Amino acid sequence: MSDDTALLELRRQDHHGSPQALYQLATALVIRHELEEAFVLHRRAAEAGLANAQIECARMLLYGVGCEADAELASAWLLRAEHAGSPIASYFLALVALGGFALPRDGRINERLLRAIRANYPPALRAAAIHFGRKPGEVDQVRCIQMLELAAGHGDAVAARLLAERLARGEGCARQPLAARDIWSQLQAIGIGALPEITVPEYAAEGTHTGALSLEEVLVPVTPKRQSLRPRVMTIDGLLSADECRLLVANAESRLQRSQTVDPETGLPLAMQIRTSSDAALDPILEDVALRSVQLRMASAAGVPLSHAEHLTVLRYEPGQEYRPHRDYRPPGSIERDCPQAGNRLRTICVYLNEVEAGGETHFPVSGLKVAPRPGRAVIFDNLQSDGTPDVDSLHAGLPVERGVKWLATLWLRQAPYRNF
Ligand SMILES: O=C(O)CCC(=O)C(=O)O
Ligand SMILES: [Fe+2]
After folding, report:
1. Average of pLDDT values for 348-372?
2. Keyword annotations for this protein (predicted)?
C-alpha cells in the first residue's frame, strides 16, 4: 500500500469515529507534518478517553506543535492519562515537573519516574541509569549497568552506546571488552559508530543519596572556581559525568549542521568565517528526562532557572575549526525576532564533552584567560553587566582545534523566561 492509500484507508476508518482510528490517522498526519489537523484528531481521541492520544495531545501542547503552547492544559491531559493507569503519562509528568515551572518540583517526580521504570519504558530506564551512574556507591553502579542493559534490550540505541563504553572501560563493572565489541558491531550494522574518547576522572559526589532515585540532586549547589573578574568567568570541573557527556554527543551527532552566527548588520543567522564548527541545536521536542536533567544541571550551576535557557546547542570542531572572538549578547534586531520578552543573553555556560588532543581552549582576550577543554568541565561567563547592559569585556573565542575533535555543549541563558515549561 502506498503512503497515500494507507492514509485514505485511515481516513475512511476515522469516519467510524473509533478513538483508535482517530489516533492512528493523527499519528500518520504528524509524520506528514499536517500538524494542525493531527492535533484536532488527537484531541478528539483524547476526549474519547484514549490514553495514548491524551499523551500525544499533551506533547503537542507542551511544545506548541499544531496548536498554541499551553503547558497547563498539557499537564491536565497527562494527569488524566496517568489516572487511567498510563506509566508513560507519569514519565512525561516527571519531565514537566523537573522544570519546576508548569508543575511543582516535588517528591512525585521520583515516584512517577519509578512507575515508568517499572514498566520498562526505555527513556525512563536510560534517565535513571545515568542518574545512578553519577553516584559513587557500588549498588548505584550495579543499578546503572542493569538499567542500561534493560533499556538496550528494549531497543534503546543510546543506552546501548553508553553501556558499551562502560563495559569497554570497566566503569562500574569489570572490564568486558568482548561484550563491548559485540554491542559495537550490532550498532555498526545499523549505521551507528563509536563515540569519542570521554573519561571524567572525578566529579563532585556530594549531596547524592546512595541507592535512592532522587532526581532533584541535579540542583545540589556546586561551587564554581573564579577564573577572572573582568570579564566574570568561572569554571566547574566534573559538572557533567562521562555518561552525560556521551549522551549529549550521541544525541547531537546525527543532527549536525554547519554553524551559523547572527549577522550584526541584519540580525539574521548566516554561515560565516568567524564560526567554522558544526552544531546541533536540540529542539525541545526531542527533550527527554535525561537531556532535561543535564540542562537543568547546567542552568542551575550557572545560577539561572532552566526556563530562561535557549535550546541546548552541541558543537563539534574539527582540526582548524574555531569560533573567532565574539560576544554572546545579541544585537537588538535579532532579539526582536526571537522571544523579546526573554531579554538578552545574561550568561553562557559551556561544557566540554571530550578529550581534545591539542588546541580548542576558550580564550578571553581581555583578561588573557585560556580555559582548557577537559571532559565534563564547565565554563560560565556573564555577557551583560549588572545593570543589564552589554559587557564588551565578555569577548571570547573558541581557539582552533589543532589535533583531535572538540565537542562542546552551550546553553545561552536569557534575562527572563524563554521556555514555557
Ligand atoms: O568553543 C568555545 O570554546 C566557545 C564557544 C562559544 O563561544 C559559544 O558557544 O558561544
Ligand atoms: Fe560564545
Report:
1. 98
2. Dioxygenase, Endoplasmic reticulum, Glycoprotein, Iron, Metal-binding, Oxidoreductase, Vitamin C
Q: Which three cell numbers stand for residue 389?
A: 547592559
β-bridge mates for residue 170, sequence order: none
DSSP-assigned states of every residue in 196-245: PP--------TT--TT---GGGGGS---PEEEETTTTEEEETTSS-HHHH
- CATH T-level assignment (fold) for domain 3-98: 1.25.40
**Angstrom distance (rounded) from CA 37 to CA 295:** 32
Q: What are phi and psi of 43, to 5 degrees?
A: -65, -40
Q: What percent of the chain has pLDDT over 90?
A: 83
| pLDDT at residue number 16 | 67
Region at 355 (left for phi over 0; alpha for psi -120 to 50; beta for the rest): beta
- Express each pLDDT in 98-124 by its tens digit: 998 889 999 899 999 999 999 999 999
Question: Ligand 1: does its nearest atom lie under 6 Å from the Cβ of 373?
Answer: no
What's the pLDDT band for 395 if we cut at 50, 70, 90?
A: very high
Interacting residues of 415 by C-beta distance below 8 A, sequence separation 6+: 308, 342, 343, 344, 346, 384, 388
User: For ligand 1, what atom is nearest to the CA of residue 379?
Assistant: 3
Q: How far is the CA of 323 from the centre of ligand 2 (A)?
A: 8
Residues ≥6 apart with Cβ < 8 Å to 248: 240, 291, 294, 312, 314, 353, 407, 409
Ion ligand 2, residues whose Cβ is below 5 A away: 328
What pLDDT score was predicted for residue 14?
Answer: 64
Atom of ligand 1 nearest to the CA of 361: 3
CA distances for 96 relative to 46, 103, 370, angstroms: 19, 7, 37
The answer to whether the bond into 231 is cis (omega within 30° of 0) is yes
- pLDDT (tens digit per residue) in 242-274: 999 999 999 999 999 999 887 777 777 777 788
> Do the strands 278-281 and 313-317 form a parallel or antiparallel pair, or are they unpaired?
antiparallel
The pLDDT assigned to 265 comes to 72
Alpha helices, H only, 273-361:
289-301, 332-337
Output the CA 234–ligand 1 centroid distance in Å. 14
Could you tell me if the ipTM is greater than 0.90? yes
Pick among 3.30.420.40, 2.60.120.620, 3.50.50.60, 3.90.79.10: CATH of 215-414 = 2.60.120.620
For residue 314, list its beta bridge partners.
280, 409
Has this prediction a pTM greater than 0.90?
Answer: yes
Nearest alpha-carbon partner for 398 in 229, 280, 312, 275: 275
Burial of 156 per CB tally in 10 Å (0-12, 13-18, 19+): buried
Residue 141 clears pLDDT 90, i.e. is over it: yes
